[in-house]
Amino acid sequence: MINSVRNKGIFLFVSFALWFSHFIYLPILTPHIELMGGKYTFIGIVLGSYGLMQFLFRLPIGICSDLFRLRRPFIVMGMLISTASCFAYVLTDSLGWVLIARSLAGIAAATWVVFTVLYSSYFVDHEVHRAMSSISFAVVLAQLLGMGVSGIIVNEWGWQAPFWIGGFTSLLAAILSFFIYERKEEKARVPVKVIDLTSVIKEPLLLKVSFLSILAHGIIFTTTFGFIPTYALKMGFTASEISLLVFIFMIPHALATLFIGKLIVPLLGKWKTLNIAFFASALFTLLTPLIEAKGLLMMIQALNGFSLGIVFPLLLGLAIETISHEKRATAMGVYQALYAIGMFSGPFVAGILNAKFGIAAGFYFIGVVGLIASILITTWSRKETITVKKHSEICT
User: Model pTM?
Assistant: First the structure.
């Protein structure tokens, strides 16, 4: 275990910077592209490229890190790519470079697999959950602060200011990442083998949960992390009010994780809780384009934030629930790579629909996606109940 507060402090700051650098401009990204002349279809492609790059690079980065038994170089690489991404937005006024910049952000985010592996090595086995709690808090804090101050910064210093701040934050973190501690004789886990990966992919629950996570990420990256800011501006929100809208979503989103394990799941069960949360998120998303009052949109955002705050940690736990301990890292790599599909396909399809039928179309589409998830959960949970019942009858 690494007791040095300095080592952990540097690591957590670099972790914070990775997400802060790209969430600080996220609320104003779609309006920024629209001001540059980008259409809804192109905006959808830009938003989707972030998830596509994670889908393509996340698993290969994890495998390469294991093969070379190195972590820090991949973290340094991630922060340098993050720096290039942020500065690319402001050093050119080309829409093509905007797409490249967002794609680079996706590649930088794909290195997160290595972040979690290295940080967990700082702790003894029975403290791994505390490690993940610390690093998860850094991520939530980065998202909350980044998206929360974005509109305020735009009001004070202009539309390009968040990109500059993100770039310099990434650059500082890139420098600090050279000082991240990594054991020279780190005993890395056995590199992923194709046969092991194939056996994990065939796990039925992992496939079901991964598909649900694809739908969930499609919802959040199409709405709050996608077209909600544009819709809010059309309603008459100012840039600073969009920051407030973000806070109203993110705070319940974070608070939901505190209630889920101790109160909600023990009371309702995992599948029922997941079903209710998905259905609620679908309902709030479908209602969004019908809202004309600012206060009502804020209330819907808060409720949707809480609903999705229940969905994500539940899916994360279910993804490895039936996986043996020696294969859980592989399962998580597969899970994270698969849910990235939702991060690019949701905004991409919504962007096309918005271009043809108006911005409301994307919300209706992604709301139906949430309803599909609810129907699938109902079907799967019933089959699971029947299977358990039959097994019980056979045993008795």
Answer: 0.76
DSSP string, 291-350: ---HHHHHHHHHHHHHHHHHHHHHHHHHHHTTS-GGGHHHHHHHHHHHHHHHHHHHHHHH
Residue 113 is predicted with a pLDDT of 79
Helix (H, G, I), strand (E, B) or coil at 80: helix
The rounded distance, in Å, linking the Cα atoms of 264 and 379 is 21
Helices (H), the chain: 5-23, 26-35, 40-68, 72-90, 95-110, 112-120, 128-157, 161-177, 194-201, 204-222, 228-235, 239-259, 265-268, 270-287, 294-320, 328-357, 359-395
Chain segment 241-298, per-residue pLDDT in tens: 887 888 899 888 878 877 766 677 778 888 999 999 999 999 999 999 999 899 999 9
DSSP track, 205-246: HHHHHHHHHHHHHHHHHHIIIIIHHHHHHHHT--HHHHHHHH
Identity of the residue numbered 313:
P
Q: Read off the tokens for 3.
A: 């007791």
Which of helix, strand or coil describes residue 372?
A: helix
Q: Which amino acid would we find at residue 173?
A: A
Task: Find all residues with CB under 8 Å of 273, minimum gap 6, and list them.
Answer: 260, 264, 265, 310, 314
Angle between helices 294-320 and 228-235 (to 10 degrees): 170
pLDDT tens for each residue of 211-221: 999 999 999 99
